[in-house]
Amino acid sequence: MATDTTAAGTTPTEDAVRAALATVNDPEIHRPITDLGMVKSVGITADGAVTVGVYLTVSGCPMRETITSNVQEAVRGVTGVTAVQVELDVMSDEQRKELAASLRGGQAEREVPFAQPGSLTRVYCVASGKGGVGKSSVTVNLAAALAADGLKVGVVDADIYGHSVPRMLGTDGRPTQVENMIMPPSAHGVKVISIGMFTPGNAPVVWRGPMLHRALQQFLADVYWGDLDVLLLDLPPGTGDIAISVAQLVPNAEILVVTTPQQAAAEVAERAGSIAVQTHQKIVGVVENMAGLPCPHCDETVDVFGSGGGARVAEGLTRTTGAEVPLLGQIPIDVRLREGGDEGKPVVLSDPDSPAGTAIRSVASALGARQRGLSGLSLGITPRNKF
Ligand SMILES: Nc1ncnc2c1ncn2[C@@H]1O[C@H](COP(=O)(O)OP(=O)(O)OP(=O)(O)O)[C@@H](O)[C@H]1O
Ligand SMILES: [Mg+2]
């Protein structure tokens, strides 16, 4: 057949080009791009110029150049190809979901219990725009305070790259596996799971969107949490893949925004919070952390990071979301809080009456006092008509 020869001037077939593309592996997932739904289109002109449309899993994918050159090299080897052009596009959320499903190897996805309509667990995502504002510190202290109040509490360290929750809660326990479920270790009465428990030493995790989604899905669905009153998710800073995955996996999760009093931090926090409008998530409130340093020698407070950021974010988010977003608390700078994090003893337990301990406990009471998630739950009763 003409297309099987190497004669110049033979127009390459689409099958031949796709067969060549099947030899290109995604550099990170190590599977052919054709299996991963990454080939968007193949166009061939009569004179043998080929255009390949390739979907990247995420925009700004660090592997874009490698993928482009590997595709060019593979297609250039096809008989009759005179030129190769690669056009990059980015997968939609739907396509990413399909990819994550195919990476699971066709195994049925276990449901996320917290996303079921009957779930009574309140899920809070602790989020911020900027890094280092104290999300993880707030998460572990709220969790410890809620557990101390007698609630059943779980924490998911959803900061896959920058996991810090196990250290802050002082657990070096490893999860155990029972049947197909992962049993989370607990510390201070809080069940906790983190990618740090699965990686040897301090090994870094280098994953892209679909893998992150998969890890989070497992944390939520394959971990045996039991009946929790509250589940806290410590998110990485910003509005990346994880925030989107959480919104998909637990749409009913509410967002707790952490900010510092600083104007710049407040602006970024507000932007991060307003993502909730797009994901249709509720913002439960704002916590202002590092809100002043009480002077150890006098009654004054030094506003190290300025003041008013928390209130500004709460007002801004109330405006953008159209729902009341309260400022739930202001946590002062407190050496004991930092030390507690380093030593794995949350300040709410080691020094509950310290200024930071008191402030966090009051946020915890506000969250803990909220009714368990009855919204959307059918109570199985029908109103009777009035006569
Ligand atoms: N109120 C506070 N007083 C004193 N130190 C604090 C306070 N809040 C947080 N810190 C310290 O600031 C550092 C950053 O806090 P933390 O790790 O909780 O922030 P984060 O928002 O989770 O950071 P990342 O974005 O990197 O995940 C830590 O060393 C923590 O102990
Ligand atoms: Mg953190």
From TrEMBL:
Organism: Streptomyces bohaiensis
Pfam families reported for this sequence: FeS_assembly_P, ParA
MIP18 family-like domain: residues covered: 14-86
Self-association and partners: Homodimer.
Taxonomic path: Bacteria, Bacillati, Actinomycetota, Actinomycetes, Kitasatosporales
Functional note: Binds and transfers iron-sulfur (Fe-S) clusters to target apoproteins. Can hydrolyze ATP.
Protein name: Iron-sulfur cluster carrier protein
InterPro entries: FSCA_dom_sf, MIP18-like, Mrp-like_CS, Mrp/NBP35_ATP-bd, NUBPL-like, P-loop_NTPase, YlxH/NBP35
Family recorded in the similarity comment: In the N-terminal section; belongs to the MIP18 family. Belongs to the Mrp/NBP35 ATP-binding proteins family.
Span of the signal peptide: none
Binding site for ATP: G129, K130, G131, G132, V133, G134, K135, S136
MF terms in GO: ATP binding
Keywords: ATP-binding, Hydrolase, Iron, Iron-sulfur, Metal-binding, Nucleotide-binding
Membrane spanning residue stretches: none
